Known about the structure:
Blueprint: H1 2-25, H2 27-58, H3 62-68, H4 72-88, H5 92-102, H6 104-125
Helix pairs in contact: 1-2, 2-4, 4-5, 4-6
Amino acid sequence: MPRILLFLAWPLAEIGLFVIIGGEIGLWPTLAWVVLTALVGIVILRFEAARGAGLIRSGLSGTAISQGGAIGDPIRGLMRALAGVLLVLPGFLTDALGILLLLPPVQALMRNLVTAKLGTLNARGFAAGQSPFGAPRAGSTNDGRDDSTIDGEWIELPPEANRNRPSRWTEPE
């Protein structure tokens, strides 16, 4: 129930802030602010997308992050990307939150919260050779593989056999 109230209260707060702040500074400065923050948000998102693509190209993997202690870099990038999304959305409240996420102290606080959560997950599963979600971790000696074989059958249908037909997943057996 509180999530629904927050979901409903957010646009009402944005509308109220538009009325109050727009009444104080006027229509054109309000519109200029919305357009300017949206452009800044787009620039941030493009920068973070290019940065992420560069990290992928350089071959930075999750194991390198966890071993090198550089977990803050992806979290900082995520905070900047989230700030960019919030800045693109029209509204003074979303802009304020987006600007807050760009501040280094707020990013450090978020990094500490995430690393504390990951530390909890590490204590639970990583020591046993598993990821936080219970799957075997890459390169672990306890890979969780079972040598049992599952037999099955399949039938290949020509593409025209499935035209204008509902999904077979929804048909009763």
